[in-house]
Amino acid sequence: MKGNVTSVVLSGAGTKGYCGRLNGSYSGTLPVALIGSDGTTATAHRNMGIFMESYDSGDLGSLQTDGVCEFAVAGGVIAPGILCTTSAAGKVVAAASGDRAFLRMIGGKSSTGATADGALCTVEILPTYIDIA
To answer: How far lies 74's CA from each of 8, 28, 58, in Å?
Structure first.
């Protein structure tokens, strides 16, 4: 792990290596997070980072929020350097027109550096969102 970590309370189960987003509320002084994105513009800006462990609903968890993450889970084949976002399931996917990217693919963990659905990959968590035209 190379980057900052934010403590969150989970509003649903979270899986190590999957993308998390804030749900816009707080539990005491901690933000509440859940896995994935619902794909709407209203919540796309709440994409936050990568869950560092697997957690149950209600657990105190950690999201890596910037830097290089070496245990993200890919949602398909993504070339190195491509700007990425999260699927509704929380996997890293290539950003498309209208998306707000918050990740950049560095490479897959296979011997060829390729990614595939469910495969571990290395991503850079960007310091700011990039709107994809």
So the answer is: 23, 33, 26
